[in-house]
Structure formats: structure tokens, C-alpha cells
Amino acid sequence: MMESRGEKIFYGFNYLILGLFACCTLYPFLYVLSASFSSPQAVVTGQVLLFPKGITMEAYNAVFNEKGIWMGYANTIFYTVAGTLTSMALTIAGAYALSKKRLKGRVAINMLISFTLIFSAGMIPMYLNFRDLGLLDNRWGIVIGFGLNTFNFIILRTFFQSIPEEIEEAARIDGAGDIAVMMKLVLPLSKASLATIALFYAVARWNGFFWSMLLLRSEDKFPLQLILNRLVVQMKPSESMMNDIAFSTGETVIYATIIVAILPIIIVYPFIQKYFVKGVMIGSLKG
Fold first, then answer.
1. Nearest C-alpha neighbor of 95 from the set 147, 144, 155
2. Euclidean distance between CA atoms 132 and 142, whole angstroms
3. pTM assigned to the model
4. What DSSP element (H or E) covers 42?
5. Is 209 helix (H, G, I), strand (E, B) or coil?
6. What's the CA gap between 141 and 79, in Å, rounded?
7. How many helices (DSSP H) and strands (DSSP E) are in the chain?
């Protein structure tokens, strides 16, 4: 079908706007990447705009020699992996149960869960709850305390509801129970939604900062984001990083640290991106 003149102008305008938006979005990342490979002098004097100047790997050497970075990395990987597995287990179990019309009190429970989307307990009651449960300065407080996200729960529950009941009934006739139906039938049919929800949880865990700052006291339990906060926001590179006089400003070290922190998510995202839009769209069709 031939496009009209008006449609061509409309599409061209859209491409232009999206291109400008993409440039505005990508430029800060490209600048940080270029600055991390540039000499500190070039960064401080403003010579770095898009491409690296005086390419050097010294900033990355300083980052990789800093023990705090690796400790933060290990803690963040633990919080991300353990937290995502815990969240997925809780979300799948709850969403599957509440997607079944035969469950008594299903409507009331769903309304109570949806209520938390609008009204939350607030920061101070949550903090007191963590304190009373003995989860302050405890790694499991980060893993278990934020195990369920209501938005992700509703998406997955809605997807489970979209699976035809006739398929499950056929499995039950063959003798399958609820657990077998869920594990062998429902979950394999829900790979797109599961990948999307897992991505949501993993990114949230990887970027988790605020509650880690409130709940954790021991530095050996700090995730990478708290280390980044010290380096980037408070501008406090560690003594080992500042030993070399070339890093007197610490800026290139900060940029290199940012790249090291976001690299895992950038590597993982393309592998599950194909499930991302599909999973969200399918899960959002029914309320």
C-alpha cells in the first residue's frame, strides 16, 4: 500500500523526534564511556565531548584494584540473584493461586493486594517493621523484605488468567495436580511474561540503593550502589584510588566505576529483550 504525502511527512517527523530523543538519551552514556577511557587532564579541562582524549586504561586499573568495588559487586550479585529467585518464587506462587476462580476469597485478596498500589505503609512504619523483625543490617532483609512487587504480581496473575482453562482441565483429567499443572503446563507457556518479570526484579535489585542505605550498617554488606554513592555523589574516592597523583580529581575513576556498575545489565538485557515487550503487552490486556 502506497503511503500518502501526509503519511510520509508524519513518519519523517516521528523519526526525527525519536532520533533526537535517542541522541539526548545516549549522549550522557557515551560521554561517561569516553571520559572513563580519557586522561584525567582532558576530562577536567573539558576536552572530552564525545570521543576519548588521551586514551588510557589507568582509571579501570584503579577501579579493579579497589577491594571495595569487588566487595560491592559480590554483594550486589548476591542481592540480585537471591532476591530475584525469591521474588519470582513468591510472585509465581501467589499469582497462580489468585488466577484461579475456584479459590475462595480470591476477589477480596486481589482487592487487598491492589490497595497497596495506591496506599503504602510509608517509610517509617516499614523501617520499624524491619527493626522489629531483626532484619536491620541483615542481608536477608534486602532479599526477603522486598520479595513481592504488586505491579509485577498483577501482570503475572493477569497472564495466568489468559491461559485457557480447557488446557488445564485436560491435564487434570490425566491425573495432574495443581503443582504439576503449574510446573509442567502453565510456566512453560508463560516464558515471555516470566522473563519480563524476572528482568523487572533483577534491574530493581541491581539498582537498589535507598533501602540498602537505610537498612545496612556494615560496609562488608554494602551493595555496589552504596559504593557508587560514595564515589559519585559524595565525591569520596578511596585512599587506594587516590594514591596515584594522576587521579587527583578522581573524575575518571568515577566514570569508570559507573561503566563497571552498569555493564552486567547492558550485557544481559539483549538476551531477554525479545521477551520484554511481548510479556508486558500480554499481561496488560486483561485487568
1. 155
2. 15
3. 0.76
4. helix 40-44
5. coil
6. 10
7. 16, 0
